[in-house]
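User: Hi! I'm working on a homework problem where we have to compare a predicted structure to a textbook description. Could you give me the structure for the chain below?
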Amino acid sequence: MKLTTKGRYAVSAMLDLACHTADGPASLADIAKRQEISLSYLEQLFAKLRRGGLVRSVRGPGGGYLLSDSPAAISVADIIRAVDESIRTTSCDANGDNGQGCVRSSRCIAHHLWVELGERIHDYLASVSLDGLAKGYQKGRGLRERGSLGLPG
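Assistant: Happy to help. Predicted structure tokens:
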């Protein structure tokens, strides 16, 4: 699995939004400044996040973006999926048929290993909520402390 800049920036921007949710709508300019992400790139990401139902926009003075649901209801997997990132670890489709970039005419010998790894990565990312990340960040904990994400140690 390769998580591109698009996925990493989307997660960072959504976490920023979750951490500042009490402040009301956040402007993309503020998020861009705090996270050191290009404003034009954030505009593209937030268009996808809005279409994915994860954020909503507020127009007018003091407008910006808000999470469309509670931070506890939004997972990292939801964010990555909304910006069209893939969490797969193979180039093949779910049936093992050749996909774009697959060089084999049949499944590779370790295909099942890579499929299961992809499923576990997805399950892990689906178990991590913005709320858990925000609480861990606000307490000054890193991801290495599994309890900071509300996950079993």
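For your comparison, note the following. Helices lie at 5-19, 28-35, 39-51, 76-82, 111-127, 130-138. Strands lie at 55-58, 64-67. Good luck with the assignment!
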